[in-house]
Structure formats: structure tokens, C-alpha cells
Amino acid sequence: MSSRPRPRSSFPLGALALVAALLLALPLVSLLLRAPWASFAHLLRGTTVVSALALSLGTATAATLVALVLGVPLAWWLAAPHSRAWASIAGIVRALVTLPLVLPPVVGGVALLMAFGRMGVLGRPLGALGLSLPFTTAAVVLSQVFVAMPFLVVGVEGALAQRDVELEEAAETMGASAWQVFRHVTLPLAAPAVAAGTVLCWARALGEFGATITFAGNVPGRTQTTPLAVYLAMQDDPDAAVALSVVLLAVCTLVLVVLRGRWLGQLARLRG
């Protein structure tokens, strides 16, 4: 196995790399240095903080479950072989799925309002049934699903596109139904990607801000998630805002640690 040659040292490149690393690391380190550690526990026990954390954990978990139920079948369909006509449709669907990854979250919130608001495309029929989504906890979950599910779909689709279809064909020849093949063969093959996508989806849902505040509002105990509480606390209680930010930073760091093994495994396979 040949080892890759180490790059030659270059002062300009090294200096630019150092500046880039500092630009990304300094704000995070500063957040930890300025955190009110002496009163940290007291700040997190505040009624508003506890309510926001509980709401964030509950809605992010609900959004992740919805993303799993809907996103894994969507990823399977996108990764399946299609005829030329269906391949074009799949390409359009794939583009729509990936749009929330680059779309400004506040634009996503406006789009949700246009779809599910009281005067929206689906909002009017729902209103006729006595249902209203905007500025409710359900709107928080829907906003989180909209911005977070693409992370799950993209990751799982990539894994399914590279799977060994011969195992599925063998199961079909043994009389297994399409659902049995998916459940007992396809899903286990994609399990690592599903697990990684689930964790990433949950973390993204937990940190959602723009679409939530636009579509669900900022009502304490009802729609005020942790990122919204941080934004509001910056105006009245900066220490509480910093403490909440540290909590979110810790969660994101934990997610990166959990996913690190999978990323390293993918890099190893690519290098091999």
C-alpha cells in the first residue's frame, strides 16, 4: 500500500491556513471563555430556558421521526433505477429536495406560510376543517422537517446508490416481496447512512431558527425553541444567551464526534 507524499511546506499557504483556522475557531473559543460558568447552572434552571430546551428537544425529535418515515422512502426512490422519463422527474425532485440546504431559512419560512398559512395553498382547505398550523408547535415541527430532512435524504440516497443490488435480486428470486426485500436487505445495507443522517437531521432541527420564527413565531412555551430563546435573551440577559449557546455548541460537538467514525470510514474507502 503506497503512502501519499506529504505536501511541501509553504509559508504563504500555511499562513492563510492558520488565518482560516483562527477565523473559525476564535469565535467558538471566545464563547467558551466568556461563558458565565459560575452561574451557568442557575441560568439553565430558569423557567424560560428550561421551557425552550424542552420544546427544542421534543420538536427536534418529532421532526426527526417524521423525516425518517418520509425521507428514507424518498431516498430509496431517488436511488432506484428509472426509465429516461422518470429519471428526468427524479432529477427535478432531487433538486427540490436539496434546495432547503442552500435556501435562506427565512425564505423557507415564507414558503411554508404561502403553503400552510391561513391564505396559503393548503392553508385554506385546512382552515375549512378547523385546522390552523402557523404559530403553533406543529408549525415548529414542520419548519424543522423542511430544513432538516434533506440532510437525511441526501446521505441515505448516496448510500443506497452504492449498495450491492445482487443481494436484493437474490432475495427476490427466493420469493421475498418488495417490502420484505426493503426491510430485511435494503434497509440493513443503508443502516449506517440512516443512523448518521438521523443524527445530523436531529442536530439541524435542534438549531433551526429562520423558518421557525417566520412560520411559527416566538411564543414562550409554545413555539420558542432554544435558538429563538438565545436571540431574545441577547436583548435582556446576555449571560443566559451565552449559556444557551454553549449548550447548543456542546450538542453540535457531540454530533460531530458521533459522526466522525463514519466520515473517516468513507474517506478510507475513497482512498482505497
From TrEMBL:
Pfam families named among the record's database cross-references: BPD_transp_1
Sequence intervals crossing the membrane: 51-79, 91-115, 135-160, 181-205, 240-259
UniProt KW keywords: Cell membrane, Membrane, Molybdenum, Transmembrane, Transmembrane helix, Transport
Cell compartments where the protein resides: Cell membrane
Primary localization class, coarse: membrane
Membrane topology: Multi-pass membrane protein
Gene3D superfamilies with a match to the protein in the record: MetI-like
Top-level taxon of origin: Bacteria
Residue ranges annotated for the ABC transmembrane type-1 domain, each copy included: 53-259
Keyword Cell membrane: yes
SUPFAM superfamilies according to UniProt: MetI-like
Stated family: Belongs to the binding-protein-dependent transport system permease family. CysTW subfamily.
UniProt-listed NCBIfam families: Mo_ABC_porter, modB_ABC
Primary role: Part of the binding-protein-dependent transport system for molybdenum; probably responsible for the translocation of the substrate across the membrane.
UniProt-recorded name of the protein: Molybdenum transport system permease
Organism: Luteococcus sanguinis
